[in-house]
Amino acid sequence: MSTRDELVSFARRSAHDLNNTVAALSMAVEIALDMAPEGDEDMTGLLERIHRNAVKLGETVDGLPDRAREWPLEDGDA
């Protein structure tokens, strides 16, 4: 297996593992949003911000294998 293949494989495994954590975070925030007191706009705003960032993190993590395929390697690495 080439260095490139190893990097992509590592990125794929890492993305899978990290996405489990991101999914748990998103689910917890969704539950907290459902349970937030009516009219508590500060709490709701904070939770919505956390959720948006969790979604963004998930999208970034999903892109790790593609980024690994494009990552520049030193000469002699495939």
TrEMBL record:
Catalytic activity: ATP + protein L-histidine = ADP + protein N-phospho-L-histidine
Record GO cellular component, one term: plasma membrane
Record protein name field: histidine kinase
Superkingdom of the organism of origin: Bacteria
Database matches in Gene3D superfamilies: 1.10.287.130
Subcellular location: Cell membrane
Record EC number: 2.7.13.3
Sample GO molecular function, one term: phosphorelay sensor kinase activity
